[in-house]
Amino acid sequence: MENKITGLKEHFILCGFGKVGEEITNTFRAEEVPFVIIDNRPGCIARIEQADYLYLEGDATRDEMLKEAGVEQAKDLVAAVGTDTDNTYITLSARGLRPDLFIEARASNEEARTKLKRAGDDRVLLPHNVGGQHMAMLALRPAVVDCIDTVIYSRGREMQLEDVDIGQNSRLVGLTIKATQSETGVTVLVIQKQSDALLPNPPDEEIIEDGDQLIVIGTKQQLAAREEALETGKPSR
User: Fold this and answer.
1) Average pLDDT over residues 8-18
2) Considering 40, 43, 70, 121, which has the largest number of Cβ atoms within 10 A of its Cβ?
């Protein structure tokens, strides 16, 4: 197992295999992305071994453990252990080891969310809030939520949503939305500019620039066939 973990690149590190962590791994497995779990609780380790996931048994707040999990080569780290304090220490350790690493964490309340952002998290989620908001939107706009859930979560789904970071060497820089959709075969739903301005349903004549982030939708075949055109020049998060 150690050799497999050492060989990981552009992988996800999940700290904590509680209820939230287990749901995260279900999605990782469905998406077929590489990941490794860090946990030190016997009950969680038993469930991890039963699921046959790559894991390290130890304290995720320690720099040595994050290094062993391949933090230098990782794409993303998720801090989902049971306490806000531990998630904060994990964030501080990971940010110190990899200033450019994309880090997300769970928090139990707004105060903890604020502190985790200060510690260096790129995204902080409150699971209870997310669940409540989802249920409210399901009550208000059930057809919309069902459609989004099908595209994002359903196994074996034909349509997929993807986010694409545009780097300066991307073949898409300087192309219009119309030309981009012709080039890639996928539909651009939203552009987020470096200024954080959001352009939903961008017009055909809108030009893609270095630093843009695109939200695109297409079939698995379209996205797989056009992966090079979409990803060339993509910076690490």
Assistant:
1) 96
2) 121
pTM for the structure as a whole: 0.74
Give pLDDT tens digits for 84-102: 999 999 999 999 999 999 9
Residues 173 and 119 in one domain: no
Q: Are 180 and 207 in contact (CB under 8 A)?
A: no
Q: Rounded to an integer, what distance in angstroms lies between the CA atom of residue 154 and that of residue 162? A: 15
DSSP symbol at 47? H
**Domain presence at residue 134:** no
> In this structure, which long-range contacts are made by residues 181-184, counting pairs with CB atoms below 8 Å and at least 24 apart in sequence?
183/226, 183/229, 184/216, 184/218, 184/222, 184/226, 184/229, 184/230
Calpha distance 40→27 (Å, rounded): 22
Q: Which of 73, 105, 125 is the last residue of a domain?
A: 125
> How many separate domains does the chain show?
2
Long-range Cβ pairs for the range 30-33 (8 Å, 24+): 30/155
φ, ψ at 190 (rounded to 5°): -145, 145
Structural domain of residue 87, as residue ranges? 2-125
DSSP states along 73-140: T-SEEEE--S-HHHHHHHHHHHHHH-TT-EEEEE-SSHHHHHHHHHHT-SEEE-HHHHHHHHHHHHHH
